[in-house]
Amino acid sequence: MPYRDTFVTLAGLGSALPGRVLTNGDLERMVETSDEWIVERTGIRQRRLAAPHEATSDLALAASRKALSDAGMDPADLDLIIVGTVTPDMPFPSTACLLQDALGARRAAAMDLGAACTGFIYGLAAAEGFLASGRFRTVLVVGAETLSRITDYEDRSTCVLFGDGAGAAVVRRATSAGGGLLSVYLAADGRGAGILRLPAGGSRRPADMETVASRQHFIHMDGREVFRFAVRAMVSAVKESLHRAGLRVSDVDLFIPHQANTRIIDTAVRLLGIPPEKVFHTIETYGNISSASIPVSLDEARRGGRLRPGDTVLLVAFGAGLTYGGAVLRWEAAAARAPAGIPHPCARVPATVRAQRTQTLMEGCDARHENSTR
Ligand code: UT7
Question: What's the CA gap between 313 and 345, in Å, rounded?
């Protein structure tokens, strides 16, 4: 196969969705809309909303714990935490630092990444770069959002679209060649910054009574323009990501696009010639959760048995910025994704203890893999 020997792999996945469900029926009672319009124009039937006490870092924490457990790793193993989000708990400190503290990942550096709905793919690319530098061995990449906090529930053109949730992946240096991340492609077009934005609350337009009264702290979007951009961006990102991996559309086993609108996905898929049965959807139940949309979908695909060892998976996203990008993964068996037995240069644990722990983890992963393939 023409793909390159890969450097990084996804060792563990996790996701967290808040409990409250907002249905199209609920929205019918809030704005002038209908279940029929929402389903036909977007494909969305319901979305999840955070409870008043839940912030983005809380959802990120729940997803991250699951991803670490899936990878058979401790928070102490993390060298870096990257959180993609447009809904941080607060402008600073970063949500990644809040997550670092909540996890107890004392050794990890931490930073937020602002690439909107493309945040998880930008995060994967950043993780690959840090891992390639040789400085770090394990990076936690998270996409986490509480979009309900910046959604205007008086604006029917946007409030039907968005939901809350988080997804996380433990990204490690690969232990075997040929699996893991085969390619990643990032792009941006800042000329389109105005078509999808949150106008106030930053240095250009600080919060005041007027910005609050004129609802400038909510998402403002030119839906039709975003739609046009989205189709072009998805087609271009798919082609570029596959080209960089030396693969063709027909090599893809599972296509996981950003979940913004079923019509955007269907149009792009038709133009690319991807069979609809290879396309994974979560939009019907979760709506658009921005940076969380891809890691949540990836985790659901894996838990639902749609990701088998050896499968080629194509991720593609677009979002405010405007940003877009894609990544191609070859999904590996649990044992191949497990931590390698090479001690980390910064590890405080003696090498013998660490090797013993790694051995135990490998056995656990083997057992889990055997169970999952029964
Ligand atoms: O993560 C990236 C973020 N955003 C996106 O990806 C969004 C991309 N855009 C879209 O998904 C679509 O443009 C929307 C779903 C936002 C809108 O769908 P559309 O088919 O482009 O509708 P439209 O904006 O062209 O509006 C058509 C009509 C308008 O009425 P008139 O002017 O034709 O009388 C709207 O006022 O639909 C009306 N409309 C609604 N009607 C019922 C807009 N929103 C609603 C609604 N319920 N919720």
Answer: 32
d(CA 211, CA 15): 34
Amino acid identity for residue 60 in this structure? A
pLDDT, tens only, 148-198: 999 999 999 999 999 999 999 999 987 666 679 999 999 999 999 999 999
Around ligand 1, the residues with Cβ closer than 6 Å are 33, 37-38, 41-42, 117, 156-157, 160, 196, 221, 223-224, 226-227, 230, 260-261, 288, 319
Cα(223) to centroid of ligand 1, in Å? 6
Pair of tokens at residue 256: 């996981």
Closest C-alpha among 234, 239, 226 to residue 322: 226
Q: Which of 26, 197, 218, 224 to mutate to test the pocket of ligand 1 (most atoms within 8 A of CB)?
A: 224
**Strands of the chain, DSSP E:** 8-16, 20-23, 46-49, 80-84, 109-113, 138-146, 164-173, 180-188, 196-197, 220-221, 254-257, 312-319, 323-330
H or E stretch covering 292: none
Residue 179: the pLDDT is: 73
Question: Average of pLDDT values for 324-346?
Answer: 69
Q: What domains appear along the chain, each with residue ranges and CATH number? A: 1-374 (3.40.47.10)
The residue to which tokens 């083997």 are assigned: 366
Can you tell me the distance from the alpha carbon of 193 to that of 332, in angstroms, rounded to the nearest whole number?
Answer: 37
The fraction of the chain above a pLDDT of 70, given in percent, is: 86
- As annotated, the active-site residues are 117, 258, 288
Q: Compute, in angstroms, the gap from residue 236 CA to the centroid of ligand 1.
A: 24
Percent of the chain residues topping a pLDDT of 90: 83
| Closest residue by CA, ligand 1 atom 43 | 157
Question: For residue 258, what pLDDT band results from cuts at 50, 70 and 90?
Answer: very high
What's the CA-to-centroid distance between 76 and ligand 1, angstroms?
A: 46
Contact indicator for 241, 3 with CB cutoff of 8 Å: no
Q: What are the distances in angstroms from CA 340 to CA 9, 173, 359?
A: 11, 8, 9
**Ligand 1, atom nearest to 156 Cα:** 48
